[in-house]
Amino acid sequence: MGKIFLLLLIIVPALEIGVLILSGNTIGVIPTILLIILTGVLGAALAKKEGLNALRTAQLQASQGQVPGSVLLDGICILVGGVVLLTPGFITDAIGFLLLIPQTRAVFKGFLKRLFEKLMRNGQMVYVSRNAWNQRR
């Protein structure tokens, strides 16, 4: 997992630079900069809206005695999507918007759920229920 993350840290910025240069040559430098600013502003507004919706849903589920598992995955996707949208570049913006739009977020949530289940099976992540946590105190 660490090797994949390191590879992404090298490849994604290189691709972003290439796309930004291509965009600057195609539509011009000023329109490219304005487009990057626009996606950042729109992304921040969408992240705020979706984040507040996820928070309200989590509070509602918690008040009804339910564990807001799916909403927590939504929150993770929204947080990552918002952060990624703040980085300049069109590839990261596309990924960020995919993480913020509820219909496309479902794909990422399924991936995260499988990843967390695998980590728990391998003992790399531990889940402690509320009852077990209160008994440990």
UniProtKB/TrEMBL annotation:
GO terms for cellular component: membrane. Pfam families: FxsA. The chain crosses the membrane at residues 26-47. Keywords: Membrane, Transmembrane, Transmembrane helix. The keyword Glycoprotein does not apply. It comes from the Bacteria. This is UPF0716 protein FxsA. The lineage of its organism: Bacteria, Bacillati, Bacillota, Bacilli, Bacillales.
